[in-house]
Amino acid sequence: MKKATTAESNKGLIAELVFLLNKGNAHAGFEDAVHDMKEDLLGKKPHGVPYSLWQLVEHVRITQADILEFCVNPAYKEMNWPDDYWPKEAAPANMKAFHDTVKQVEKDRKAFIELLESEEADLYEPLAHGTGQNLLREALLIADHTAYHTGEIILLRRMLGDWKA
Description:
mainly alpha; 5 helices; DinB/YfiT-like; DinB family protein; DinB-like
């Protein structure tokens, strides 16, 4: 049996990462969670919950954009946690702002996937400007972070009576 080269075996891993980033495997994906949200619920914070649906969706966008920027920009400047990662406003200015945020999440995810799939990508090589981070770690970080908050989005929608059972 012929042993696969690292590049050949990475194709399988990259395909699994792409699927994980796009679909979420055994749970609802981000697009499912944000589909058909009602404008009047975007800014509501259920009792005991410190953030709204809008804040969760915008937080996913901000964080993913930051991870992408970190991966592609050797002059990356670290943002301040948590202030720079969470929107102050409980609701978007309008539905266009909400839809623009969802589209930006999709656009940045696509750009990250293109980075993963590029010929020169090395999943394991530490990023020169980081402290040991590599593309594999950052892909898993995006997937894990988005999945975590996707679950929260669904839970908030259930609490607000706006989720299909």
